Amino acid sequence: MFNRILVAIDGSKNSYDALSAAIALTKQFNSKLFLVSVVNTANLPVNVGVSYAPGLTHDLEEGAKFDLQKAEDLVKKAGLVCQVELLNGEPRSELAHFPKDKTIDLIVMGKTGLNALERAFVGSVTRYVSEHSKTNVLMVD
Questions:
Q1: What CATH code is assigned to 4-140?
Q2: Could you tell me the pTM of the whole model?
Q3: How far apart are CA 2 and CA 96, in angstroms?
Q4: Nearest to 140 by CA among 2, 33, 3, 25
Q5: CB-count burial class (<10 Å; 0-12, 13-18, 19+) for 65
Q6: Pick the residue with more confidence: 86 or 121?
Q7: Distance between alpha carbon 38 and the CA centroid of its chain, in Å?
């Protein structure tokens, strides 16, 4: 049923819970598994004359690589292989559009822990992806 499964990894407990669910589905359907993390370079702080703090993107990328490596290790421990992708941009948009390029059948994401007021002002990556992606989305709590 699901040939290609994407898991969004952001280092949160919810993203690793989503990974656990995706591992089970990957085994059940003999799917190809993709681990994706997005470095949010679209909303970096701006200083006069400098687009963002020097080294900030590098630090964010290193953190995302660490999270992806941890996730990949969990996948290997489960006896599976995966493809790892580190993207730059606006996470909501990248995660909503990436699946089309890779013909992903299912996106597995952790639900956010934001309260209703924060969600109203900031928005949820998971909510945005579920509303704007043409791919099925499984939200894991």
A1: 3.40.50.620
A2: 0.86
A3: 17
A4: 25
A5: middle
A6: 86
A7: 6
